[in-house]
Amino acid sequence: MDALTRAAMGINNPALTAISLLLDNDVFFAALVLALILIAERRDNKRLKIMTAIVLAVLAGMALKSIYAIPRPCYGLNCPSDYSFPSLHAVTAFTLMIAFLNKREYPFFLFFALFVAFTRLHLGVHTFEDVAAAFPVAILAYHVVDSRWKNE
């Protein structure tokens, strides 16, 4: 296990663990991301663009999970049954962050993405490499959607 993952897992804070477990719930996480999009972005066309980029990023992440088939570290409280690389929670959060890159809300989304990535380490369901790999997947997915969106 890498040092960053070990350090994140070593934090003994019940509130942090509770929040991490809440974000680990796929239904809650999806609802939270959708709510953030609806609150932070007023334009329907941009909302649709962000959601399209997230869907593409998650599909790309799922494909990478299947291709690499890296088992989860599962040092923590729970162990999901799918593969580890890359973290789909981090893929989603980083894609959302990139969508707000040139907006005044960007610092919030930067913090949110980094916090989501950290919670994956804290729970012991991903390694640093898993969450770090999510970033280029998010960049590529958003770029593909953004470049196609401009051409329509």
Question: How would you describe what is shown here?
Answer:
The chain is mainly α. The protein has one domain (3-150). The chain has 7 helices and no strands. Helix 4 (44-68) runs antiparallel to helix 5 (88-99). The longest helix has 25 residues, at 44-68. The N and C termini lie far apart (46 Å). The model has no long low-confidence stretch (mean pLDDT 91).
Sum up the structure in keywords:
152 residues; mainly alpha; 7 helices; globular
| Rough outline | globular
Stretches with pLDDT under 50, minimum 5 residues:
none
In which range does the helix fraction lie?
over 70%
In terms of structural class, how would the helical and strand content be classed? mainly alpha
The radius of gyration over CA amounts to 15 Å
Q: State the end-to-end CA separation.
A: 46 Å
Main sheet? Answer: none
Topology:
Blueprint: H1 3-9, H2 14-24, H3 26-40, H4 44-68, H5 88-99, H6 106-122, H7 128-150
In summary, what is this structure?
With 152 residues, the protein is mainly α. The protein contains seven helices and no strands.
